[in-house]
Amino acid sequence: MRKLKKLEMRGISKSFIGVKANQDVNLNIQGGDILGLLGENGAGKTTLMNILYGLYLPDEGQVLINDNEIRLRNPKDSMQAGIGMIHQHFMLIQKHTVLENIALGYDGAPFFFPQRYMREQIKEYSERFGLDVDPDKKIWELSAGEQQRVEILKALFRNADLLIMDEPTSVLTPQEAEDLFDILRKMTKEGHTVILISHKLEEIMAICNSVMVMRKGKVTGNARIEDVTQKDLARMMIGREISSCFEKSDQKPGEAVLEVNNLCVNNDQNRMIVNDLSFKLHQNEILGVAGVSGNGQREMVEAITGLRHALNGQVFLQGEEITNISARKIHDRGITHVPEERIKHGTVSTLQLYENSVLKQHHRNPFSFRSLMNYPLIKAHAEKIVKSYNVDAASINTPIKNLSGGNIQKLILGREISAEPDVLIAAHPTYGLDVGAAEYIRKELIVCRDRGGAVLLVSEDLEELFQVCDRIAVMFEGRFMGIVNPQNCEMDDIGLMMAGAIPEFSPAPQGEN
């Protein structure tokens, strides 16, 4: 018989340095259900679940399990109450094995032959829930999906009746995501309960029994899944309808701004990952790059922006060669970059918002003169970006790490576009963002193109590429399979090219315009 029959959170409120993350939030879930906790980036979803897991203490409110109030002062209290949490970024030790990671902090193994006991338990849970994983493999050897299974096993070993999952599919392939959903369905059939934090409407509709929607720290809706549509959820989530397509003016491409000839680049394992790549990017154009992750997209972008050494080939900006010069010089000459990993490579987490607003420009006029920073001007610049790009922050003095992922991405995009680049390179700019933030960023890319800029958009989201791009190049094993006009092809054609197949129509070969 399961321990958890009902969980309630009543009147939960929590603030951080003047920001109201949760305001009088009520949550109810029945045992054996999967509740989708839906909302924009920064809506307060993760804060609420961190309170339930004992990482934060609420300013107000109470938590009840089976109608009995409990006080969760730390994660140990939550685990003892049968609550486990799997964070968006896994809490595993990379150099240790699966078995060692599960054993860390677990005191349920017998004194004699504990490893044998752990293996037997791992095998039992694996067969019961489909959590197939090799206990002797080191964590760094596992895929993201396999690492997530280890996290689930850790929670099950600690008798978690309720499992909180924070954006669980953000690092998974579509196949791994479907495997995860199968695991969660098996767990709920055995009486476990799941709260799934997400901003993906289709994910909530596919797996959850019920949904609670949050916006700006407040609850804006509760429903059973069978009673709502994706449009209903989007309206609750951001307060308006989401555009399925964008108005795009017809723009005649101008002169070639960026030209890449026979580019060859190695990956981190010193194997060639970009192989003899050639293409041109024009003014008033968005060129999309589609492809399955790992086919050289990241290395191509890093070579163009000066972050990685090119083995061979040439890169020209406005007819001037910029191959293998420094990233700072490339930025100064007119190429700005929205990086794939926005936290790690796009910001300095300990610096304040206004300081991050001038990264890569801080050494130049008008923001500095003879090594002296013009702070009034920098702050005015930050205020302008915050206002123009709808960055939701308490103030420009807020540390950037306190912003949600969507607001950090808006700040980075505003910073890079405000530099008035000849070329904007955006790598997965809407990855991990809610539908409202993604819609806003896509529109800004179109605005940049309409102002005369040239945009290179790398994305695995085919719908995004079809919405905003003038041409789409499909990358496979370090080369472009071809370059197509999205108005003259189907998504299935792009999918075939992503797998290395040639569709029935004939796309333009790489390098052709």
TrEMBL record:
PANTHER family, alphabetized: CARBOHYDRATE TRANSPORT ATP-BINDING PROTEIN MG119-RELATED, GUANOSINE IMPORT ATP-BINDING PROTEIN NUPO
Stated name of the protein: ABC transporter ATP-binding protein
CDD domains recorded: ABC_Carb_Monos_I (cd03216), ABC_Carb_Monos_II (cd03215)
One GO cellular component term noted in the UniProt record for this chain: plasma membrane
PROSITE patterns, A to Z: ABC_TRANSPORTER_1, ABC_TRANSPORTER_2
All copies of domain ABC transporter, residue ranges: 7-241, 258-502
Entry membrane topology: Peripheral membrane protein
Keywords (A to Z) from UniProt: ATP-binding, Cell membrane, Membrane, Nucleotide-binding, Repeat, Sugar transport, Translocase, Transport
Major subcellular site: membrane
Location(s) in or outside the cell: Cell membrane
Organism domain of life: Bacteria
Organism: Oceanispirochaeta crateris
Keyword Ribonucleoprotein: no
GO molecular function: ATP binding; ATP hydrolysis activity
